[in-house]
Amino acid sequence: MSFQMAQLDVDNLNLDCGLEKSNLSVYAPYGNSKLATILFTRELARRLGENSNINTYALCPGAVFTRNLEREPFFARLWIKFAFFNGSDGCLNTLHCTLSKSLENQSGKMYRLLDVWDIEDLVSDQQAGELWKKSEELVGITFKKP
Q1: Which keywords does UniProt give here (predicted)?
Q2: Would 145 be classed as within a structural domain?
Q3: What's the whole-model pTM score?
Q4: Parallel, antiparallel, or unpaired for β 57-60 and 109-112?
């Protein structure tokens, strides 16, 4: 859900004008990174085409307890361990999308909890194309279909 906090501006990807000047919340950079991943995944699938043998998926593992959270206060860790996935469960989406033959025609989709997450109304193919174009410009490489 963090991508829904995004305020992605393809002309300010590095937030060079800062959070204050661009009216972004402190959560926007994280949300922007998640939205950019979704948009890139969708655009790559579109550019590869329906007949490609390469599949792309955006994944939301959910809230996963990692070693970084071990520094949290004791009571916060108790709540986190109860509410968050452990590392093994957190990787299930990745394994599902990597190994499941039934997903071969689902390239470009977003997955969470081992199923397609319908976000079609929340993301824009136009924005995906704009981000792709800006990325090509920034790295100086133009995509060539394999």
Answers
A1: Oxidoreductase
A2: no
A3: 0.79
A4: parallel
